[in-house]
Design goal:
- The protein has six helices and 20 strands.
- The protein is of the alpha+beta class.
- The chain is globular, with a radius of gyration of 19 Å.
Length: about 300
């Protein structure tokens, strides 16, 4: 049986308390934060620990804001195929969140990827309700997390993926995440859009019909299904002032390329949008981006 799961919104819930406290292993930083200015994404990376225990953490953004994709890379992760659900927490002040993850490899090294939509702080109940009312399509911007909360972060804890809880001692995250956002706004400029205009939109572009209607289980590439291949595809669409997509571009993908081709072909054929509005209420060119997760059911 094949299944196409998830347009953008990650599955999340507060995990139940463990019956027995698990060992927590801390890894100290073994490198500085590094921001990578790529053509289609911005990433923030840092290594923790040494040798076979080393874990490299990546935050990746495909547009400005508080949301990002998380990726953990390291031999210590071992075989992750049986651990698709993990917990993450930016401590000591933020709540723990349970999230779906995809196991992969990075240059032959085990990796664990959490799709876009992760933040330093999970959405509150009120914010989740507001997102639900928006239907996952209307522009939904929860209040910014803010530099003060980002500065208060001391560690990022990863649970359920390993026989123990793994805590990466990140230290304050405000300056590092600010550098990541600056990179993301610079990326928007390379798309040919006016950054100052995009920063002050009255309304962002959003689909006329739910984006889930653009895809169905029948769109899962047959060859990829036969091979048991899964993928996370991050894409952006440039939207004209009349709401018509003018360009679909794959930002990053876990590949194979067959997934990328399916996504953009269907988006250009089926997607139509309410255009973005500038601060005066005039329709202007802008963008819309999303993540499609292709996952096979068990």
């Amino acid at each position: 049986m094949r299944r196409l799961i998830g347009l953008g919104l990650a599955l999340a819930m507060i995990s139940a308390a463990s019956a027995k406290p698990r060992e927590v292993r801390h890894l100290a930083p073994s490198s500085v934060w590094v921001v990578n200015y790529a053509d289609d994404s911005c990433s923030l990376g840092r290594s923790f620990g040494e040798g076979d225990r080393k874990i490299t953490l990546f935050f990746e953004q495909f547009e400005p804001g508080d949301s990002f994709t998380l990726m953990f890379v390291g031999k210590a992760l071992g075989d992750l195929r049986d651990r698709p659900m993990i917990t993450v927490r930016f401590g000591p002040n933020e709540e723990q969140e349970e999230a779906a993850a995809i196991s992969a490899t990075n240059d032959g090294v085990p990796a664990l990827i959490l799709g876009s939509g992760k933040r330093i702080a999970p959405l509150t109940k009120a914010e989740k309700l507001a997102r639900k009312k928006a239907g996952g399509e209307l522009p939904f911007d929860p209040p910014p997390i803010g530099a003060a909360r980002e500065k208060a972060v001391a560690w990022l804890q990863l649970g359920k993926a390993l026989p123990f809880e793994l805590a990466l001692d990140t230290g304050p995250m405000d300056q590092a995440l600010d550098a990541l956002r600056q990179c993301s706004w610079d990326m928007v400029r390379t798309w040919g859009l006016d950054v100052e205009l995009q920063k002050h939109l009255l309304r962002k572009a959003y689909p006329l019909q739910p984006s889930a209607s653009w895809f169905s289980a029948d769109d899962y590439p047959a060859k990829m299904q036969q091979e048991g291949s899964e993928a996370i595809v991050n894409f952006r669409v440039l939207v004209s002032e009349s709401g018509v997509p003018t360009l679909c571009h794959i930002q990053t993908s876990t590949r194979p390329k067959a997934f990328d081709d399916v996504v953009c072909a269907l988006v250009m054929k089926r997607a139509r949008f309410h255009p973005a509005l500038d601060s005066q209420g005039k329709a202007v060119p802008s963008y819309w981006r999303q993540t499609v997760t292709f996952r096979l059911s068990s």
